[in-house]
Amino acid sequence: MKAAVYRRYGPPEVVRIEEVPTPTPEPHEVRMRVCATTVGTWDAEARAFSFPLWFGIPLRLAMGLRTPRWPILGQEAAGVVDAVGSEVTNFAAGDRVCASLGLGFGGHAEFACVSSRGAIAHIPPNLEFAEATTLPVGGDNALHFLRMADVQPGERVLVNGAGGNIGVLAVQLAKHFGAEVTAVDAGPKLERLRKIGADHALDYTSEDFAAAGPRYDVIFDLVFGSSYARALSALTSRGRYLLANASLPSLLRSHWTNATRTQRVRSRFAASRPADLETLVELAGSGAIRGVIDRRFPFEEAAAAHCYVDGGSRTGAVVLDLAGPEASGGRGGS
């Protein structure tokens, strides 16, 4: 099969299309013929290995010191089941599915195997593969953090760094929960953020959300290195600060904040549970939320997709198409 692989850490040019062995599903696994997959921030960071030092050292040991241990990136994918292991009873060949592939990656390939007990869900006929593939990681993280905050109807929620795939889904989920949502990102992204439901949109290059205006019940912060103190100052007395991309100093300060103040700081990796992915697929299938696709690339242009993600200008997801528009089905996703 063809796969987009990286044999060394580095710039987008290290990603090449190669022929590699087609995986064989284990007894508990499903093999999917991949129709669409995303190139996300995590893929770009793993390729370049641009992680903070405190997090990067143990991750380097896991991923490979000199060369990548798992050379096929792609944490999320959507496609059609083409084979199942002997122990699989809940999926069959021909099923349309989307899945989170975890840190073992594998989505940037014509075929990928995933545990039938993991985060994999059937997708309805009206949901395009390209849209479905934005949900397993982006949607899962957005749902995970907003649930930690227990967002209530009428509360004010601010999403800082709202233009990425997690951010655009967080805006929509917060609106679905009944919140008044403020999205913060660069100016060119704001109109699209308003179109997906943001009540207010702020350009961080010219407006400081902490300087004036309302206090927020929840701040969902996706920006690494943003000001911890300023975010707390913009919270209500019982506000919740969600750190999705925390620096080590912020994590250390969060313990003191939780011990001494009525505000709460939360930061914990999403668990990628099957039930959560099923919820997201149901919401997307009903039109309550939808995956926002900034740009779609042919699979052969995987390196160009990485380059585009590195540029930081996207609003939503960057998708690699492996099956072509005629095989996508669904309602369209760009």
What's the topology here?
Elements: E1 2-6, E2 15-19, E3 29-38, H1 41-48, H2 53-63, E4 76-84, E5 96-100, E6 111-115, E7 120-122, H3 129-132, H4 135-149, E8 156-160, H5 165-176, E9 180-185, H6 190-195, E10 200-203, E11 216-221, H7 228-233, E12 235-243, H8 248-260, E13 264-266, H9 274-286, E14 293-298, H10 302-311, E15 317-321
Parallel strand pairs: 8-9, 8-11, 9-10, 11-12, 12-13, 14-15
Antiparallel strand pairs: 1-2, 3-4, 3-6, 3-15, 4-5, 5-7
Q: Short description, anyone?
A:
Helix content is 29%, strand content 26%. It has helices at residues 41-48, 53-63, 129-132, 135-149, 165-176, 190-195, 228-233, 248-260, 274-286, 302-311; strands at residues 2-6, 15-19, 29-38, 76-84, 96-100, 111-115, 120-122, 156-160, 180-185, 200-203, 216-221, 235-243, 264-266, 293-298, 317-321.
Please characterize this protein's 3D structure.
With 334 residues, the chain is α/β, with parallel strands linked by helices. Helices cover 29% and strands 26% of the residues. It contains ten helices and 15 strands. Strands 3, 4, 5, 6, 7, 14 and 15 form a seven-stranded mixed β-sheet that branches. It is globular and about 55 Å long. The two termini are 27 Å apart.
